[in-house]
Amino acid sequence: MVKCLISNLIIKHLTFFIKYIYTILPRKRIEYLLLCKFLGLKTLLNHQQINLTIKRLANQVLENHVQLHNTVIIGIQPRGIRLSDRIVAEVGNEINNKEIQYGKLDITFYRDDIRKEIHFPNQTDITFSIEGKNVVLIDDVLYTGRTIRAALDALMDFGRPEKVELLVLIDRRYSRQLPIQPDYTGKTIDSIVSQKVKVLWGEEGGDAVVLD
Amino acid sequence: MALSTRHLLGIKDLTAEDISLILQTAQQFKEVLQRPIKKVPSLRDITIVNLFFENSTRTRISFELAEKRLSADTINFTASGSSVSKGETLLDTVNNILSMKVDMVVMRHSASGAPHFLAKHIPAAIINAGDGINEHPTQALLDALSIMEQFGTLKGVRVAIIGDIMHSRVAQSNIYLLKKMGAEVIVCGPPTLIPKYMEEAFNVRVEYNLQKALEWCDVANVLRIQLERQNQVLFSSLREYNLVYGINRRLLESLPKKITIMHPGPINRGVELDSDVADSDQSIILQQVENGVAVRMAVLYLLSNRQ
Prior knowledge:
The complex is a heterodimer of chains A (212) and B (307). Chain A is of the alpha/beta class.
């Protein structure tokens, strides 16, 4: 009985340890995915599905913004950037690589929880004015909506946009703390607070969205 | 991620990680200062008092601007015209201000260790804006940011600190910081203005010959002769000091490479720096001032987190 308990404990700690190691090593994402399967983590989107979803999202953006005339794309640091890079590349392909106005926005200084915790800022890189432009804001997972609230505030400091739209890969339904909804959604999921949605951007074949 | 200290009393108490964190955060704030609206709401609910018991232009304006750019509420206090002249003690003054619900204190005082004393007795976060001849941490941080912008790194950069080392808090903070970040440092000046055990205490080389120091270095950080702190004659005249330790164009042109000139201000033109050097393209004195706001925003931001 005691032996059984101890070995259970060891296995539990080992799994945590392995999971931790694999999350900090980006090169090993593929193995991490196999591990997720082994540990029973649910894969929400696999590599191929993510590719298709990104293509669809890019096309939807183009549907509403013909030739991206007067439209700028802004990714939210740090986790929205991988997605916005891909969207910009896809959109660029469709419109024959016409110059796209693409910026990166860090929202650290606009967060509403500075009294609780200090967050470390990332780079903001918006070299153009967004005055009178249509803005497509991009982030990977929409959860409480607080990041987007901060992003909207941050955005207004770069000018008064004509219109702001939100594009997300994953929309965690029924968990919003603010009245914010996406305009373009990759996949809508139902999850509980204790669950974590992770978007993994790996090398070739390693992208996935998993539920932890 | 957070700083290892609650106060910024001196560079001496910071780790290399703290310094990198402040400098990286400052770089992001520099970008904020380029925006059409140069203001972020980070410290919206925080009140900061600027306690200046000693004269200051740059540091006070720079701190005040940094606080306003972070949306903090600010109160300015100068010793002249306050109850200090009626004999109120430092601790009483500060406690009275704090009882009006102030969260952070930025302080300059002519007594070395004054902010350290306060830190022991009051609950608010304290930022040292210069204490006597001890430290001036934000100046060292902005100097480091300016050097990093020029050279991309601090590691291996050769810095000569020239002038009144004895009375300079800027020199002391700079030496601590540059040493922690892996830069090479020498100090240069007349023997009467360099403390006796400099080499042993700080592990820096001392060079009495200005020409040799300038030939060796990549950056010359020229300090002001602090006449207000000198109560004895340490060199015969300002003119003589200028002839031996003043930096002029002719001297810079005789060097094998182009070096960068820094000065913490205010400049005594014609004493430690001649105008043709201070206003040349080799001098980054005004960039230093610009970086000062970003560095102070970073320090205030990183120290503002208290439950």
